[in-house]
Each structure stands twice: as C-alpha cells, then as structure tokens.
Amino acid sequence: MHIFSCPYCGPRDETEFHFALESGKHRPEPAAAVSNVDWAHYLHFKRNPKGETSEVWLHLTCGEYFVMRRDTLSHDVHETRCLHGGRP
Ligand SMILES: [Zn+2]
Which fold has domain 3-82? Predict the structure, then answer.
C-alpha cells in the first residue's frame, strides 16, 4: 500500500487516487487537421518512463486534479502540487 499526499487533503491511501494523464502532454491542434493515427496516439499512448516522471492525478475524494512527480522504479513520491504550481 502506498500513501499519496493530495495538496488539498494531505496524506491518503493510494486507492483514493486515479491517474489522469502525463504532465505536459498537449492536445494536437487544430482538430480538423489531426490524423486518426495522431489522435489515437494522443488518447491511448503514454510514455511509461523508467525512473522519474511527472503526471496529473485525480484525488477521487475531493475531486481535485494535481501534479505528482514520482519515481516509477522506487515508487518514491518526490512532490505533489496544485496544477497552478502553488499551494491551495
Ligand atoms: Zn484531495
């Protein structure tokens, strides 16, 4: 069991959280010019890096999205912060 720290609520059990998306991933634009392959890649593929990564997570209990910087090898969480970068 892991404990993640929501910037709004503090430490909580990992079962209260859901992965949302890679941090820094940009929606391809303009939509009318995006191929089906590029759109599918945007929706369904993620990098899955080995080591440090930055992701957006949802805390299901409070409904807030936030950034989590963590290590996929050690499972250490280095930082959680609000999407705008500061504290709530
Ligand atoms: Zn929360």
Answer: Folate-binding fold (3.30.2270)
> Would you kindly state where each structural domain of the chain is located, as residue ranges?
3-82
List, in order, residues 6 or more apart from 21 with CB less than 8 Å away: 46, 55, 56
Per-residue pLDDT tens listing for the chain (88 residues): 899 999 999 999 999 999 999 988 889 999 999 999 999 999 999 888 899 999 999 999 999 999 999 999 999 999 999 998 777 7
- Asked whether the beta carbons of 82 and 10 are under 8 A apart, the reply is no
CA of 19 to the centre of ligand 1 (A): 13
List CB-based neighbours of ion ligand 1 within 5 Å.
Answer: 6, 8-9, 59, 62
